[in-house]
């Protein structure tokens, strides 16, 4: 965390050491991105709600809103799909067994962000379906490589 400029972790525990809690403060640059993306005042992101949370009773800021980064598995999937990839191979990368949940939770966000494309878009569940990294996805991978990720 120190290498990327993040604030140091904070450790809390009781006298008997029967529990501990670790706080990982948000990186200042990530805070700025979240503030600009949500339109909230500086310092207010993560302190009580987003516009989406306010419109959905019972949901807090940590349950709705934007995702600021791809998961490690999503990045690996983009790399695998530089050459067309089968869903079974992609599920193995993400260590998933449920095809429907995998499509909904991993592939659909990549498809929606135009980072990944289907080779047969008219038949999303075809056994011959393959997934391919788009130019936007390739550019993202290149920028991650430059950033040392």
CATH structural architecture of the largest domain:
Orthogonal Bundle
Low-confidence stretches: 44-66
First-to-last CA distance: 14 Å
Reading side by side through the largest sheet, how are the strands ordered?
3-5-4
How many structural domains in the coordinates?
2
At the fourth level of CATH, the homologous superfamily of the largest domain is: Winged helix-like DNA-binding domain superfamily/Winged helix DNA-binding domain
Report the mean per-residue pLDDT as an integer: 77
Structural class: alpha+beta
Indicate the percent of residues in helices.
Answer: 25-40%
Radius of gyration from the CA trace? 19 Å
Q: In DSSP terms, counting alpha (H) and pi (I) runs of 4 or more, how many helices?
A: 6
Sheet bearing the most strands, described? 3 strands, antiparallel
Count of distinct strands: 5
The run of helices and strands is EEHHHEHHEEH
């Amino acid at each position: 965390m120190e290498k990327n400029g993040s604030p140091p972790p904070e450790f809390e525990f009781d006298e008997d050491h029967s529990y501990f809690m670790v706080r990982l403060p948000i990186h200042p640059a990530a805070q700025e991105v979240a503030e600009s993306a949500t339109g909230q005042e500086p310092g207010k992101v993560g302190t009580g709600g987003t516009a989406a949370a306010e419109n959905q009773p019972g949901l807090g800021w940590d349950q709705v809103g934007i995702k600021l980064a791809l998961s490690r598995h999503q990045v690996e999937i983009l790399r695998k799909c530089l050459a067309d990839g089968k869903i079974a191979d992609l599920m193995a990368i993400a260590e998933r067994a449920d095809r429907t949940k995998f499509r909904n939770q991993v592939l659909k966000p990549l498809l929606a962000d135009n980072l990944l494309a289907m080779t047969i878009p008219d038949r999303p569940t075809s056994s011959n379906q393959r997934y391919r990294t788009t130019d936007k996805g390739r550019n993202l991978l290149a920028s991650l490589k430059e950033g040392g990720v």
